[in-house]
Specification:
- The chain is α/β, with parallel strands linked by helices and 376 residues long.
- The chain has twelve helices and twelve strands.
- The chain has a seven-stranded mixed beta sheet with strand order 2-8-7-6-5-3-4, sandwiched between helices. Strands 9-12-11 form a three-stranded antiparallel beta sheet, covered by helices on one side.
- Helix 2 crosses helix 9, helix 4 packs across helix 5 and helix 10 runs parallel beside helix 12.
- The radius of gyration is 21 Å and the shape is globular.
- It starts with a helix and ends with a helix.
Length: 376
């Protein structure tokens, strides 16, 4: 997508292509980030470019733990935190650590495209389950699907590609179901909560942490979106302090972080994000963009569930064939992604973490295609 978009921009001029295909935030990192970067350049710490403990700097892990404790009311310490090269590395490290060959990993469609590859990387078998019309995982399908080989369930809220945010009630029921199944099969079922967008949440909603609902929980996240630093590859894994065999699990995660070749998360970023744990980009700005696009699409006749977080929308494709519809939009230089890439044909994904000019410019293409397919 990245390359195709670049080629189109080169051919038609940047200003004539409306690229809504990537989750690459246009926003700059908050001013606090630049301040810390400058401070570190002017007052370097001795040895700050050397190797470090593979789990990360103790001070950074402690800062993450302190922030999580404030947010959740659960007492985290640095022993529960491993700094990683983004959420992508965090997911790979977790799967490498907990999976035996042939273990099943349950994911819900639509899902973040890379999950299947990550599961495959570590000898797991992906089992894809459906979500309901609001894109919330169906618990009856989950209940039927969990078996003796189920090692973990991955959830992602706020969700890429739908923007759905799961409720506290849903997370509670999910935790109860997992524990029931653990008892039934005599197994340990991890809940991996991918929280890459945890802080990007709208309409005054409060994020319901998984921690209160399942002790076998592992959170993976990054500062790619909340601090707009995707190129810097900085994130972390947090393990529930009450997880059984907690110490052994954390040792395994640290070992896999090293042996998968990540070694440790970038030193410079760890020294910066240590001071930025309570900081987030302007969520109001993303909400404004969501409102702008959602209102226009609905007026044009598109069928779309209002996203409550992240910066994606997942409207129904007016054509049964979502690839053909994305090609229609592309004729108007509007770039989106077919839903089948996320395991859900018949939809398409729009990423609205772009500048206003791109959003406004894309409306012409959305309007022309809406007229062509008689949407309103
Ligand atoms: C749901 C989800 N998980 C994980 C990632 C990976 O994040 P990172 O770039 O921090 O590794 C992304 C990136 O877009 C994502 O959307």
């Amino acid at each position: 997508m990245f390359e195709e978009g670049a080629a189109l921009k080169q051919r038609y001029g940047e200003e004539n292509v409306f690229d809504l295909s990537l989750g690459n935030p246009v926003m700059e990192p908050p001013v606090e980030f630049k301040r810390e970067l400058k401070r570190l350049a002017e007052h370097p710490l001795p040895g700050m470019h050397r190797y470090m403990p593979n789990a990360g700097y103790p001070e950074t892990r402690a800062a993450v733990a302190a922030q999580l404790s404030i947010e959740t009311g659960i007492k985290f310490t640095m022993k529960d935190i491993i700094m990683t090269c983004g959420a992508a590395a965090a997911l790979n490290v977790v799967l490498k650590t907990i999976l035996n060959p042939g273990d099943e990993v349950i994911i819900f469609a639509p899902y973040f495209v890379e999950y299947r590859h990550y599961i495959d990387n570590h000898g797991g078998v992906a089992r894809v389950l459906p979500t309901d019309e609001q894109f919330v995982p169906k618990l009856d399908a989950l209940e039927a699907a969990i078996g003796a080989k189920t090692r973990t369930v991955i959830i992602n809220s706020p969700n890429n590609p739908t923007g759905a945010v799961y409720t506290e009630d849903f997370v509670h029921q999910l935790g109860e179901l997992l524990r029931k199944k653990e008892t039934q099969y005599g197994t340990q079922i991890f809940l991996i909560s991918d929280e890459a967008y945890r802080k990007i949440i709208y309409d005054g909603l409060k994020y319901p942490p998984v921690w209160h609902h399942h002790p076998q929980s592992i959170v993976v996240t990054s500062h790619s979106k909340d601090l707009a630093l995707p190129g810097e590859r900085i994130g972390y894994i947090a393990v529930h302090p009450d997880c059984s065999q907690q110490g052994e699990l954390v040792d395994g995660l640290i070992f896999c972080n090293r042996t998968l070749g990540y070694v440790n998360a970038p030193a410079l970023m760890q020294n910066i994000v240590r001071h930025l744990q309570p900081v987030t980009v302007s969520v109001a700005e993303y909400q404004r963009k969501r409102d702008f696009l959602y209102d226009h699409l609905v007026k044009l006749g598109y069928s779309v569930i209002k996203p409550r977080g992240a910066f994606y929308m997942f409207p129904k494709s007016p054509l049964k064939d979502d690839v053909a519809f994305v090609a229609e939009l592309q004729q108007w230089k509007v770039l989106t992604v077919p839903g089948r890439g996320f395991g859900t044909p018949g939809y398409f994904r729009i990423s609205y973490c772009v500048d206003d000019r791109t959003l406004e410019g894309s409306l012409v293409g959305f309007k022309k295609t809406a007229l062509k397919f008689n949407l309103s």
